[in-house]
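USER: Note each token:
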Amino acid sequence: MIYAISAASICNSKAPCTKADTIIYQLPENMHPEFVPEDIHFKSAFGEYTATMEVEQGNLVYARRLQVRKGRFPASSFVDIKDFYQKVSKADRAKVVLAKST
């Protein structure tokens, strides 16, 4: 069950774009997290990404922040830009493993 969601998005054509989300999942009483991914943070000339997952008082709290920097980048940086977005995509697919409590 999703307990609460808050999101912020600040974007315009003259400034960086920042998207931040916090999702709180209320864990069922008979379930516990068996595996929680480690926090992740990376940055480059193209942006910055942070994601955290933690268990607090029977809730799983997921927080994510993506800042995309504005700018004109040479065609030669295409591979680096692609790598940045692939890292974001991979981080967004991280999964928590839940198990039944005994």
Observations:
- Strands lie at 2-12, 15-26, 31-35, 40-44, 47-56, 59-68, 97-100.
- The two ends are 21 Å apart (CA to CA).
- Residues 46 and 72 are 10 Å apart (CA to CA).
- Confidence is low (pLDDT under 50) at residues 1-8.
